[in-house]
Specification:
By secondary structure, the protein is of the alpha/beta class. It folds into two domains: 199 residues, Glycogen Phosphorylase B (Rossmann fold, 3-Layer(aba) Sandwich), CATH 3.40.50.2000; 169 residues, Glycogen Phosphorylase B (Rossmann fold, 3-Layer(aba) Sandwich). It has 16 helices and 13 strands. The strands form two sheets. Strands 3-2-1-4-5-6-7 form a seven-stranded parallel beta sheet, with helices on both faces. The chain has a six-stranded parallel beta sheet with strand order 10-9-8-11-12-13, with helices on both faces. α11 links the parallel β11 and β12. α3 crosses α4, α5 packs across α6 and α8 packs across α13. It is globular and about 60 Å long.
Length: 380
């Protein structure tokens, strides 16, 4: 039987590099979708190693403009550029990442009869909750889409409320994943009670609330050590607060690390600290930590406990006292720490990028050729 590859057009309106969880996920995802030919639209500069994740990567030329009086003309100009690309590429389907943001709006306005799958990441939903105009954009893209993919039921509920429950039947939960085969666990088991070597890897901004971890460290019974990895507009403020609290010797700041470097470092810590206080769509880095044998002290946001299973300890979001208690609880005994580590490893095995890719591929086939089957199109 002759088989054909499904031609998918997608993109994210950012420099084409693994600079965030959404970008890293996307780079992994399309390499884990057999039978798919992917054209990705991004921005310069292009990380050439990352670009190999796609069959073809094209850079957009329309100059970006932020939300404001120039935003509508910008989207119109971007839509004209995307329209020409759609005419040339002739995709079977479009994956509109970050529904409601500029590129997904351009996709929605140029697709014609090409089916769209909207793929929500979290920042798009947060934008829609803050602004009526961005909510209108989210509604426009989801209304034009044949399916709306979200990584958790909690995020599906938020989109369902934002869109007035008009597209409930289009919402599909496909959990994110990571390339589990690349994860390594340190062969040093927990040896007893005592201070923990903690790691926190994130953007350093207000929503990620790294300050909660620093202030918690001043409240713990044990002199835990914390390594903060990342960059952002809160970095200087966080460093100053650590000094004010007398934590200069217990808190170490390091710059953002590419994933290969972060994964090399993770097995040398005892636990991961997650401090986000607002919306977190999935928390990909939490699964990365668990896959390397790290239990997670996590702010108990909607959906995060379901994602992490028993491989972590929750605390009240934004509350340093609650986090301090969770960290000390982690350090109480070797048996408890061993059980948490095993639970973290077991849980991470649920989130292989191969599974994510297969589920998104199968959904794309269903919305593109609803009367066809996987056997007919891929000879399986």
């Amino acid at each position: 039987m002759t088989t054909r590859r499904l031609n998918v057009l997608t993109g994210i309106n950012r420099p084409s590099a693994p600079s965030s969880g959404g970008m890293i996920l996307t780079g992994d995802l399309y390499g884990a979708m057999p039978g798919i030919h992917t054209t990705f639209l991004g921005r310069a500069p292009v990380d050439q190693a990352w670009a190999t994740a796609f069959d073809r990567l094209l850079t957009l030329s329309t100059a970006k403009r932020p939300l404001g009086p120039d935003f509508a003309p910008y989207v119109e100009e971007l839509t004209r550029e995307v329209s020409a690309l759609v005419d040339n590429i002739k995709p079977d389907a479009i994956h509109a990442h970050y529904p409601g943001l500029a590129l997904s709006l351009a996709f929605a306005r140029t697709a014609g009869d090409i089916p769209i799958i909207a793929i929500a990441h979290g920042p798009d939903v947060m934008a829609a909750e803050r602004s009526a105009s961005e909510r209108e954009g989210l509604e426009e893209v989801t209304g034009r889409s044949a399916a709306i993919v979200v990584p958790t039921s909690a995020l599906a509920d938020r989109i369902d409320r934002l869109t007035g429950h008009r597209f409930t039947d289009r919402l599909t939960v496909i959990p994110w994943g990571i390339p589990l085969s690349g994860a390594r666990v340190h062969d040093r088991p927990p040896t007893g009670t005592g201070p923990l070597a903690l790691v926190h890897a994130s953007r350093l901004d207000d929503n990620k609330s790294t300050m909660t971890a620093i202030e918690a460290l001043a409240l713990t019974d044990q002199p835990h050590q914390l390594t903060v990895i990342g960059h952002g507009n809160q970095r200087e403020h966080l460093e100053q607060r650590a000094i004010e609290l007398g934590l200069r010797e217990r808190v170490r700041f390091e710059p953002f690390l590419p994933r290969i470097e972060l994964w090399r470092r993770l097995p040398h810590f005892d636990a991961f600290v997650f401090t986000t206080k607002g919306l977190e769509a999935f928390g990909l880095v939490l699964i990365e930590a668990q896959a390397h044998g790290l239990p997670v002290a996590y702010s108990d946001l909607p959906g995060i406990g379901d994602t992490l299973g028993d491989g972590g300890i929750p605390y009240k979001p934004g509350d340093p006292h609650s986090l301090a208690a969770a960290l000390d609880e982690m350090s109480w005994g070797v048996h408890e720490r061993t059980a948490l580590t095993k639970a973290a490893l077991d849980n991470a095995r649920r989130y292989d990028i191969i599974t994510t890719g297969r589920q998104l591929r199968d959904l794309t086939i269903r919305v593109t050729w609803p009367r066809g089957t996987l056997n007919e199109w891929f000879g399986q």
